[in-house]
Amino acid sequence: MKTLLSGSGPISILSLVFRFCLAMVFFQASLDKISAPAEFAIAVENYRLVPAMFSNTIAILLPWIEFWCGIALLAGIWQRGSAVLLSIMCIIFIGAMLSVMIRGLEIDCGCFGAGSEVNAYRIVEDIVLLLMSVYLAKHPSDKFTLPTLFIKKNKKPMQMPGA
Amino acid sequence: MRQSVIFEILFILILSVISAIIYNTSSANGIPLFYHEITVAPDQQLSLSQTELVIWEKRALIIDARAPEEYSTGHLPGAINVPGYAAVDQILEAVKTIPKDRMIVTYCSGVSCPYADRLSGFLRFQGYRAVYVFPGGIDAWKAAGNQLNGEK
Questions:
Q1: ∠ CA(A20), CA(A37), CA(B90), 5° rounding?
Q2: Which of A7, A75, B4, B141 could form an SS bridge with A139, CB 3.0 to 4.6 Å?
Q3: Could you give the ipTM of this predicted complex?
């Protein structure tokens, strides 16, 4: 149990799995939104939580935060920063979807492009992503990261000239 | 360590802002940074008494631009429901049988709701020539003591 929580030893694989899961989910989600910002802007406005004026701004910026967090996690760099950002975003998403359900609105959640309605399943999905992000923020994965792969690759035994 | 996390967050945010602006400016799918509310000209707005008259004389097609669940709790007499936030193809499907010269009046829950304006702008863009907005919407209608159809 200790190794599971500390993220060291063979069970540190958990951090690795979470890292790649989060990277793939948010990278994929960002691509759908980046390619259709107008649709995502409507999805943002449908929540009726921010002034309509800023729906475009959010629709332009948010997918890119997801994109770079996904790339960073995939590469294994800035893991804590990415995980903290994703945790904050998940909390906002969960709050927004809960408020939609309480208000009885039936709208597209804008999670993965069009066609994904706000429902309890989406909230559970985001809670799982939140837990994964929080875990990763506490225990970043040190396996298969760009820096470690790069350092290992260049870590050849030094040979003295003429030896 | 906390400082490095803050730097990482800032770095990702700055990178995101730069990428977003560059992509949005250069992409064919780019959208304006700030959404400008569609402004409806004063001569395309109907007052409460004008709306009452239009409904009484059945001169226009009345469109409720709110969500279906809001519409089902009560709407203006004879109004049909076309949510103003619906996707373009859904709106087109809903209005495809309406002649382009038919008088149309859109309304929403009140002055703070943007969907009546948005729907009217879209319909005008689609070639409907007599589209009007009742800005007061449900709030003004109820405040005047008028009954709603299908009110629960």
A1: 115
A2: A7
A3: 0.83
